[in-house]
Design goal:
The chain has about 350 residues and is α/β, with parallel strands linked by helices. The chain has helices at about 15-20, 60-70, 115-125, 190-205, 220-225, 240-250, 250-255, 265-270, 320-335; strands at about 55, 85-90, 100, 105-110, 130-135, 140-145, 150, 155-160, 160-165, 175-180, 210, 230-235, 260, 280-285, 290-295, 310-315, 340. The protein has two domains: about 1-25 and about 55-185, no CATH class; about 190-340, Rossmann fold (3-Layer(aba) Sandwich), CATH 3.40.50. The chain contains nine helices and 17 strands. The strands form five sheets. A seven-stranded mixed β-sheet has the order 13-14-15-12-11-16-17, sandwiched between helices.
């Protein structure tokens, strides 16, 4: 599958990427262990990778990024290692020990990084596949009325497409995203949202399941593992909806899908990433199943949904706003019906 960001083969089927998860970040017997004081500048120059497995400890990779940024004037010579940025490993997995990294195994998210430093990092730090300038705002929709307002970070160099692997009772779920356009999410080994979704699906045995604010599709794909005939996923944030469709394709073997038919191009999302009126992004079929991805405001989704919806999950940002969530649930039940839960 061709990556829409860099044009290469970043995207792998779920089985291929999950097969590597056990050893991808594990040190070999010849690996050294390096743990730096994150509150101080790094205490050494760049070190060569392990001669046996060609991996390096994460702290050494970040220290190289710090050094380049300091040389470019992005950081003061006295700045601590942690000031350089946030390393997001690819694929994200629940770890029990500090990771050791091989080539193209992390995306580096940084507030102080500039273009020159980003170019040098991607060219000279092989473990880093992409560098993203962090604007300090969470990517996504900030406001929809009266005009859409949204935030994205900026990919400065390389490719910022990365994956997370979530473990479930059925099978691992692999979800890709473009990190500059997605909030940071990371597997923890035990994810209450995934457990809640599986529990509700097992309890209600829906024929039609809706993930009304699906993000990149994690909860909808978890639900689809239970052979639901009709799964509909939707998000008003175009980057989320697009990658949900990609992730259906990534996990299609596990879900028993024959293929995924895309109805939009990535360029359309980039041009105008927020929609109110629902637009279909993709269809997927397989063995009596029909899965759909839509891009639009969840409160306008009722017009394109089946007449009967059995179960809906609504996982919005700002769940601490009880009045907002109560209003959202009330409107959904009035317009769509069926059981609704917040994970």
């Amino acid at each position: 599958m061709k990556c829409q960001v860099c044009g290469s083969s970043c995207l792998k089927k779920a089985a291929e990427i999950t097969r590597q998860r056990e050893e991808r970040f594990s040190p070999c017997p010849s690996c050294r262990s390096t743990v730096l004081n994150k509150q101080s500048p790094p205490s050494y120059r760049s070190r060569a990778p392990c001669s046996a497995c060609e991996k390096r400890p994460l702290d050494e990779v970040v220290a190289d990024c710090w050094t380049i940024m300091a040389e470019e004037g992005d950081l003061a010579p006295t700045a601590p290692v942690m000031a350089a940025g946030i390393p997001l490993i690819h694929p994200g997995v629940a770890l029990t020990a500090p990771p050791h990294h091989g080539e193209a195994s992390l995306v580096f998210l940084s507030r102080p990084v500039t273009q020159n430093a980003a170019d040098r990092i991607v060219a000279n730090v092989p473990e880093v596949k992409g560098v993203v300038h962090d604007t300090g705002k969470v990517p996504g929709i900030a406001e929809t009325d009266p005009e859409p307002e949204y935030h994205v970070n900026t990919l400065l160099a390389g490719c910022d497409v990365r994956a997370n692997i979530f473990e479930t009772e059925e099978a691992p779920v692999t979800v890709f995203m473009q990190q500059s356009c997605a909030h940071i999410e990371y597997p923890r080994g035990f994810d209450p949202k995934l457990v809640a979704t599986a529990t509700e699906v097992i309890q209600h045995e829906p024929s039609v399941f809706v993930d009304a604010a699906c993000g990149v599709g994690t909860l909808g794909i978890v639900a689809a593992q239970y052979d639901i005939p009709r799964v509909i996923m939707n998000d008003a944030w175009g980057y989320a909806a697009y990658w949900t469709a990609v992730n259906l394709n990534i996990n299609r073997d596990t879900l028993g899908l024959e293929g995924v038919e895309m109805h939009i191009a990535y360029a359309e999302v980039q041009e105008s990433p927020v929609r109110k009126e629902p637009r279909k992004v993709a269809d997927a079929f397989g063995d009596g199943k029909h899965y759909e991805v839509w891009w639009g405001d969840l409160h306008q989704l009722a017009d394109v949904l089946p007449k009967s919806v059995d179960l809906t999950v609504i996982d919005l940002f700002g769940k601490e706003d009880r009045a907002l969530m109560a209003d959202t649930l009330h409107r959904w039940k009035r317009e769509t019906g069926g059981e609704v839960f917040i994970p």
